[in-house]
């Protein structure tokens, strides 16, 4: 996957950003751990989430930092509110 930069995203609408977010997430799901494609997908997701916050400050993003194991309680999944900088 090609890295999607914040510069490229700046002119996109919210609908386009959400579509790119979906595509990047799907690419992340298909990628192998530690691969170049996975790093680009993760960085692209972070860039897209940043731009979505700029458009809609109430946007809540789930931090995709590491694979979540099937036995991990949902309460341990980190959610970041970018508009307030609060993690819960």
Structure in words:
The chain has 88 residues and is mainly alpha-helical. It is 47% helix and 8% strand. It is built from three helices and three strands; from the N terminus they run αααβββ. The chain has helices at residues 6-9, 14-30, 36-55; strands spanning 61-62, 79-81, 86-87. It has a three-stranded antiparallel beta sheet with strand order 1-2-3, with no helix packed on it. Helix 2 runs antiparallel to helix 3 (36-55).
Write the layout of secondary structure elements.
Layout (H helix, E strand, L loop, with lengths): L5 H4 L4 H17 L5 H20 L5 E2 L16 E3 L4 E2 L1
Q: Taking Cα atoms only, what radius of gyration do you get, to the nearest Å?
A: 13 Å
Please indicate the percent range of residues in DSSP E strands (runs of 2 or more): 5-15%
Helix content range: 40-55%
The arrangement of helices and strands along the chain is: HHHEEE
Structural shape = elongated
Adjacency order of strands in the biggest sheet: 1-2-3
Biggest sheet architecture: 3 strands, antiparallel
Q: Could you list the spans in which at least 5 consecutive residues all have pLDDT below 50? A: 84-88
SS elements, strand count = 3
Q: What is the first-to-last residue Cα distance?
A: 31 Å
Mean pLDDT: 77
Number of helices: 3
Structural class: mainly alpha
């Amino acid at each position: 996957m090609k890295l999607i930069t914040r510069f490229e995203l700046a002119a996109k609408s919210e609908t386009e950003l959400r579509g790119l977010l979906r595509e990047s997430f799907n690419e992340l799901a298909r990628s192998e751990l530690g691969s170049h494609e996975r790093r680009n997908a993760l960085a692209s997701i972070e860039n897209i989430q940043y731009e979505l916050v700029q458009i809609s400050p109430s946007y809540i993003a789930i931090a995709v930092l590491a694979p979540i194991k099937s036995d991990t309680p949902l309460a341990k999944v980190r959610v970041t509110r970018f508009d307030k900088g609060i993690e819960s």
